[in-house]
Amino acid sequence: MDIILASKSPRRRELLEQMGVRDFRIITPDIDEHMDRDLPPAELVRQISEEKARAVAAQVGPDAVVIAADTVVALDGAVLGKPADKEEAFRMLSILSGCRHQVYTGLTVLHGEQCYSVWEETAVTFRTLAAEEIEHYIATGEPMDKAGAYGIQGYGALFIEGISGDYYNVMGLPVCRLGRILSELGMDCMALAAEA
After folding, report:
1. Using one digit for the tens of pLDDT, what is the confidence trace for 149-159?
2. What domain range is 103 assigned to?
3. Is the terminal CB of the chain with fewer CB neighbours within 10 Å at N or C?
């Protein structure tokens, strides 16, 4: 089966490999990811993931399985994407300080005429952060390419008091949900992992 990950994210690539899927190609989708702020965060990421998947599917054969995802952080319904600069990263982390927020990932899997387009939500609680901690974190460079300006799998873990939901969803790929979809398409990830 020709599996294509429609993402340049190294974290998504690593998570797909961790699921036992090792034989796949990466094609970066060329779409306008402009966010329609009027959409609820869950629908926003689902829609963008589907656009990514369809853009890549148009470039490959109908037998390919195309996997695409998009992730945002939301606080009180307001979407926080990737910060444009250090100042925006500081603002984002400051408003997340001491708060519980949501991480939404849209996930789309296309295989011929079959389309699975869903979203996953995980709640994350930050402890209260000092301005100096935020500045030091930004100096690591880690926040700059991540939704909400933090990475749960990196130094950002030091800020997280609690999580409710799929941990991997916060990294950008809801592994459990994706595994179930791939199973419906006839791909047993656990069997692939056992063969590795």
Report:
1. 999 999 999 99
2. 3-195
3. C
**163-184 pLDDT, tens digit each:** 999 999 999 999 999 999 999 9
Please report, for the domain that includes residue 146, its CATH number.
3.90.950.10
pTM given for the model: 0.92
User: Of the candidates 147, 145, 191, which has an alpha carbon nearest to the alpha carbon of residue 169?
Assistant: 147
With vertex at residue 13, the alpha carbon angle to CA 9 and CA 15, rounded to the nearest 5 degrees, is 115
Q: Are the beta carbons of 80 and 148 closer than 8 angstroms?
A: yes
Residues annotated catalytic, as ranges: 70
User: How far is it, in rounded angstroms, from Cα 65 to Cα 52?
Assistant: 13
- The residues near 56 (Cβ < 8 Å, ≥ 6 apart) are 4, 6, 27, 29, 66, 68
| H helical segments located in 31-161 | 41-57, 86-96, 131-139
Kindly report the backbone phi and psi dihedral angles of residue 50, in degrees, each rounded to the nearest multiple of 5, phi listed first. -70, -40
